[in-house]
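Obj.: predict assembly geometry.
Materials: sequence records (below).
Method: joint structure prediction, all chains together.
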Amino acid sequence: MSDSSIGQPVHRREDERFLRGQGRYTDDIHLPGEAHAYFLRSPHAHARIRGIGTAAAAQADGVVAVLTGEDLAADGVGGLPCGWQITDVDGNPMKEPAHPPLAQGKVRYVGDAVAVVIAESYWQAKDASELIEVDYEPLEAVASAARALTDGAPRVHDEFDDNCCYVWEIGEGGEVDAAFDSAAHTVSVDITNNRLIPNAIEPRAAIAQYTPGEERYTLYTTSQNPHVTRLLMSAFVLQIPEHKLRVVAPDVGGGFGSKIFHYAEEAVLTWASRRVARPVRWTAERSESFTTDAHGRDHVTRAEMALDGDGHFQAMRVRTTANMGAYLSTFAPSVPTILYATLLAGQYRTPKIHCRVTAAFTHTTPVDAYRGAGRPEATYVVERLVDACGRALGIDQAEIRRRNFIPKDAFPYQTPVALNYDVGDYEATLDAAMEMADVAGFEQRRAEARSRGRYRGIGYSTYIEACGLAPSNIAGALGARAGLYEAGEVRLHPTGKVTVFTGSHSHGQGHETTFAQVVSDRLGIGIEDVEIVHGDTDRVPFGMGTYGSRSLAVGGTAIMRALDKVIDKSRKIAAHMLEVDAADVEYDDHGTFRVAGTDRTLSMPEIAFSAYVPHNYPLETLEPGLDEMAFYDPTNFTYPAGSHICEVEVDPETGRVEIVNFTAVDDFGNVINPMIVEGQVHGGLAQGIGQALLEACVYDDASGQLVTGTYMDYTMPRADDLPSFRVDTRNTPCTHNPLGVKGCGEAGAIGAPPAVVNAVIDALGPLGVHDIGMPLTPVRVWQAIQQAGGSRAA
Amino acid sequence: MYAFEFHRASDIDDALKQLGADDEAQLIAGGQTLLQSLRQRLAMPSTLVDLGGLTELAGIERDGDALNIGAMTRHADVAGAAAVHDAIPALAVLAGGIGDAQVRNMGTLGGSIANNDPAADYPAGLVGLGATVVTTEREIAADDFFTGMFETALGEHELILGVRFPVPRRAGYVKFPQPASRYVLVSVMVAETDEGVRVAVSGAGPCVFRVPEMERALAADFRPEALDGIRVDPGGLNEDLHATPEYRAHLVGVIARRAVAAALS
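Observations (raw structure tokens):
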């Protein structure tokens, strides 16, 4: 057996095909006889549809069909379901509006699909769509959650009295209020978590096919979780028997959460493929990605901390308004509640926390999970508030954190907001980050920058996240309408090669490498002889997919459980072949069975051969074959944590912020492939810095028009916006999964934003700036300096 | 995009003939603006008359006290030409800062100035350097060429042949980019020429403009400090997501000082 690859920076096996252009994305797939779909979308944020004239379009060149919401309704097609139900403060279920895949009666956001044209070519479909006459009666719109919640605001859904989806809370409000009444100090911040557009490099795409002889549907789609899409579409939308629907998510070019959800186009194409008896394909134009991929974030929060005289946190009070958009996307209600407020303890011993969240419908694109999903919002609240506490009390930023950290000997630690942290060492990551960032030399660098007319600042973010979603029973009690386990299957072939089937889905994460490392190590079979299969409901037994940094912690554990079964069975086969008791056969955990105390051994390939060619085999007690599957439902979340330190320089004349250093030291538990982990951290940091400095999805509140509808106005981070990151880990293994892993995919996006903003506030303190909202664009920074009274500096 | 006819012009006369024969025909040079409009179905020409084959319109040549650059010269070629670096390094800086490498390898001088996007770099370059636009019909001073937002003095069937840049004693160009598009938020070309000092601003207003007060101050004292205290009126300046008129007015001062510093460096 070769040396273990665990912990080694094995090159990503999938990269070769990606770099050679041999990846197979949805848009690369072509089916015989396929037709093309174009979705006609609403230009209005809110309008009544008085009628849709499709006759001219239906006559246009190449047109196969023009279908509208009325056709869907006539065929009994249901609305898109929501996968999470929040119960409000009064014990009532959240308001859950109908979400027809094609608009019926009204449109409720710019981009809402009104009709689909199916034609021989995409351009014919698009040309014909211009002949559709939609008689709109434009109505007043509202884009901001705050205004949507006011009396007299335009109502998004006529079936409800107001735009409030739910008011939800966690924690004991009375106890928290009492703590504030008796506190030595109180500190508050008012913050906005800016709305973001996901911008995966591959736009959403789908191809649907109906096979009449088998009464079977196949949907190729850009999904992070094809089994979930199959379940939602078969059980709720199309009422197709689940075994008659195959969903394939082939190579997928980035998701960041936006490809978790079941989208209208998937259901419409699948339905239409049977109606027109042709495969039907669609790939979003980038403009459609902007208006129809579920957006992220969009919170407005007031957060307060009560402290004692020594700067110890006594209680925290948080009030958040969350924008849900026009409809409830698949997991939207959980994001500003379960995935947000439960993280408000952060890394701290804050004994009492109360959070109330008000979710509002608006005439905007639906908002759902986006890299971090609730946890970046929570971390931004906590770390901006902690920073403000340090400034208000004159306590050093590292010191106020250390003073309130949960100490490493206090685990497992029960927070006041439901979570039970299993393990961590927050001092260790902070110590390492401060050393890497050379905090000791900062004041000298600040002075040097000042001599060049630049204001330099340093900012901290010591974050925690809850990953490895999730114990199904807990999730169910909190409103999840699905389980959150994972499935894995390990199949040894007679020749000793291995195929692994996983319900996790890789769309950039490198599972084909990391998972193969795990299996290779455990079976003593080379990585090149292990294939990872994912993304096809006909090949993979079941799965809940990839989001919330769960793949290795949950999907990897399911594979480990299947491996345990393989090894158990192999031990029995080995015992028979070696003519000893199974109890006398030892396994070295890396592919070799040995009769205890002897040099008589068998390797895994030898056993696999025997399992399929069972000539010398215990057939009377054991089935032939070596193919095992397992489900794994986690017993707890995992809790990655870390310390990020950002150093910036601000040009006070222009307001431009430059990130000059960024250090991230994370605790991800055991690391299987450090190169892939580092790549995940880099990508996450880029997104987090993007949110902090560059990205903002802006709507005109009165009209509901998307102002940032193209890259001319929506600022994606570019390589030259970013410094060379300094990253490292200080890991404490997770205590409740066999790999000891926690997850790393979202950490950068969670930790980075407050570190950046805190650094800019630190830099501009001498100019009197104490608050500034994301993104910290040059104009905003300059305005903040002006408002603080800092005249044209330098 | 909508369907259109495509005609590759064989020479200048052919291009003019095609243009004259069809009211809905449109010229395409590098296509870096037009192709986006076509893709978004914001333009619907009947015919695109491609100037890509007119090699006689591409080229850079020093002619005594002037630098002549053909209309079809790509930004990358301007940015990289030794003649430009020798004569007007600020112009090489300007061309090298347009878009990204792909845009610079396709986009042309003539296409850019004919479009006169208020957020383009070249208008400040031409006006700041006191250049002259040479067309099939006449010569037009840059001051008279750029007439308004996306408007120029060009006639309907008039083709730009090239631009003549007088070589300045010194010049500096500094651009402050709009964060998303990296077009110009505010840019300034400052040049000290035989005719005097010129200060031209792109991005801040609906069309490139000069700042006479700054030109007078620099004529007396060509140093950044000479501009201290000179305020630009925000009235009439552009307002969008990325900048208020007040911020743009402020940036004109900041960027002009930096352009002077660049000219002196």
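Conclusions so far: The interface with chain B takes residues 127, 287, 653-656, 694, 698, 707-708, 711-716, 777-779, 782-783, 792 of chain A (CB under 8 Å).
To do: check interface contacts against the pulldown list.
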